[in-house]
Design a protein that fits this description.
By secondary structure, the protein is mostly helical. It folds into 2 domains: 44 residues, Arc Repressor Mutant, subunit A (Orthogonal Bundle), CATH 1.10.10.60; 136 residues, Orthogonal Bundle (Tetracycline Repressor, domain 2), CATH 1.10.357. Helices cover 68% and strands 0% of the residues. The chain has 9 helices and no strands. It is elongated. It starts with 10 loop residues before the first helix and ends in a 14-residue tail after the last helix.
Length: 202
């Protein structure tokens, strides 16, 4: 993710970020105030502002921390996998996530729903994360020999977005089952020349 400045680590900062991450994800960003985060983290308000000039800075750090964790997991999960096997592995990541204890959907989609301005720093972090995820998928489909890997990546992302939303709002079991069928269809379509030209490849 671009535009990141070096972060000075401290125990207080890590407590603030850990507390905020738990509360933001479970209760939503707008419903959790700075005073509550400070109190739950056992730090002073001055300490909070020394590490995060504003609540928005904390939200950006919260999302960047999730992104970095997902990148690490992706790299570990991709070890030794390529092509179709990698596409299937990325799909398995989604299935494993949906319905876990405390699952409330995608943290990035949830955050975007609370920040309307696409130029807001929070929305830019969301956009950067989604671009990373798209490029990861596009590369996997291209390596698998898909004729239109960009289209396939977009289809996968839409399936994933719908699954993590339905997996929270409706039945996780049904959402995962439907998603798995969709991914299997995308993999089978790799050898088909007449994929729909719904989006121009970059």
């Amino acid at each position: 993710m671009t535009g990141k400045l070096p972060v000075k680590r401290s125990a207080a900062r890590e407590r603030l970020l850990s507390t905020a991450s738990r509360l933001f994800y479970s209760e939503g960003i707008s419903g959790v105030g700075v005073d509550r985060i400070v109190s739950a983290s056992n730090v002073t308000l001055a300490t909070f502002y020394r590490h995060f000039p504003s609540k928005q800075d904390l939200v950006v750090s919260y999302l960047r921390n999730i992104h970095d964790t997902l990148v690490e997991r992706a790299e570990a999960g991709a070890a030794g996998k390529e092509g179709r096997e990698l596409v299937a592995a990325i799909g398995a990541e989604v299935v494993a996530e949906v319905g876990t204890d405390g699952f409330r959907g995608c943290a990035f989609i949830n955050a975007a729903s609370e920040y309307e301005d696409p130029e807001n720093p929070v929305r830019r972090v969301v956009a950067e994360h989604r671009l990373w995820y798209f490029e990861r998928l596009r590369s996997a489909f291209a390596d698998a020999g898909h004729k239109r890997p960009g289209n396939a990546a977009r289809h996968f992302m839409m399936l994933r977005d719908g699954t993590v939303t339905a997996g929270y709002l409706d039945s996780p079991t049904a959402a995962k089952r439907t998603f798995k069928r969709g991914v299997e269809g995308l993999i089978r379509a790799i050898d088909i020349d007449h994929m729909p030209h719904d989006v121009d490849e970059a």
